[in-house]
Amino acid sequence: MDELQKALNDKSLTISTLPEKGRCLFTTRAFFPGEVIISENPYVCVPNKNKESPQSKCEWCFSSRNLKKCSACHVVWYCSSKCQKSDWKLHSVECRALSKIDKDRLKSLTPSIRLMVRLYIRRKLENEKIFPTTVMDNYKHVEPLVSHMSEVDEKQLVLYAQMANLVNLILQWPDSEVNIKEIAESFSKLACNAHTICDSELRPLGTGLYPVISIINHSCLPNSVLVFEGRLAVVRAMQHIPKGTEVLISYVEIAGSTITRQKALKEQYFFTCTCPRCMKLGQSDDIQESATLEGYRCKDSKCNGFLLRDSDNKGFICQQCGLLRDKEEIKNITNEVKLISEKASTSFSSGHKAEASVAYKMVEELQMKLYHPFSINLMRTRETLLKIFMELQEWKEALLYCRLTIPVYERVYPRCHPLLGLQYYMSGKLEWLLGETEAAVRSLTKALDILRITHGTLTPFMLELLSKLEEARAEASYMLHSQDED
Ligand SMILES: [Zn+2]
Ligand SMILES: [Zn+2]
Ligand SMILES: [Zn+2]
Ligand SMILES: [Zn+2]
């Protein structure tokens, strides 16, 4: 650890251990907004393949273009011989193991299983000095990651054991090298420590283990943000971070109420968050916030008050005008929403997008009667509608829904949150497409102000945003001049 501590000191960082939190990463100088605090290559990583992201991806760079299958194992894909070569040291061993397993077993080869196989192969190659280690890239840093084995429930333990069995079958190593119990514990470790690798627009691409970045703790009010540039994980300061401050990112969606966030953290990471937002749990402003985000709206459609359960348990009372909303009425609408949502989701996943858009609009209408205008549930429905209209290339409708989500985003995310930046970007692109040039300039400028901090300025993604903004600005000034001449 001393070696790592020294390397981190050179980056103006230091590891401290606090009894209630374990390891924490602190700054030893101030960081400015947008400054890179730390970046790390994955110790091991694998691309995802699921319903949300069905296309195959390059094993090394996660690209979906020009892919060729490895001709030996027929399991992994590469976009170029350069990527294949970069991955070869690890994959050559994995390839031999994968080639031996039968077709039926291949079907159960999930990304988690593959990540685990890769983890043990890399450790073995390191031990045999075939794979070089560096200060940051070293199995030494995987060892101290927490696993929370004693808190994992029985059902999950059985699942880990089954997965470990499969890993063991693939590796076919002697017991002296690795055993099922150890692999099962590593699965628990990955569940709390592995990161979802996303593209610049925060769409998931894969899963990776970044043992040094894993030292960084969670806050629902984070001062830093983790983004990926290909497989490289980059943590940037979202705001000015003074010297001697703990670096904090968010592990879960921070838009929800305190109870929702705490539940997510407890379930996946086994801790109770004590960030300033969570410390407000039960206080009046936290109760109001939760009721706004996840509660019901007032019966009077003109009233924007928030509702709390009444003491007789008949329903919910508006805290602004005192009107009661009946429990049964809420239940009926909720059931209707559930029914139509299921239909809508089935239509969408089976490719009937126009049908899905009609059904989700019905859901939206019902939810507008049910929830507060700043409701997260309503926001999610509108996000889905935005996605569907983008796929249908109905830009006008897409822009409408994009604009409806923005006020909620502005409310639930910090000023410099990447999701807010991306939503402004989407709005700007749609406005540009629809000829609303001045609005496009405004939205793209807002997007740039945020994303230059969260994403840096030099990636192809950011260069594209910059050139779009320049184009929109040029057109806006051209339009202004031609108006002057008229
Ligand atoms: Zn590639
Ligand atoms: Zn192969
Ligand atoms: Zn918290
Ligand atoms: Zn009211």
UniProtKB/TrEMBL annotation:
Family matches, as InterPro entries: H3K4_H4K5_MeTrfase, SET_dom, SET_dom_sf, TPR-like_helical_dom_sf, Znf_MYND
This protein's GO CC annotations: nucleus
The MYND-type domain, residue ranges: 58-95
SUPFAM superfamilies: SET domain, TPR-like
Organism per entry: Sesamum indicum (Oriental sesame)
Entry's Gene Ontology molecular function annotations: zinc ion binding
PANTHER family per the UniProt record, alphabetical: EG:BACR7C10.4 PROTEIN, HISTONE-LYSINE N-METHYLTRANSFERASE SMYD
A family per Pfam: zf-MYND
Domain of life: Eukaryota
Protein name: Histone-lysine N-methyltransferase ASHR1 isoform X1
Keywords: Metal-binding, Zinc, Zinc-finger
Occurrences of domain SET (ranges): 11-252
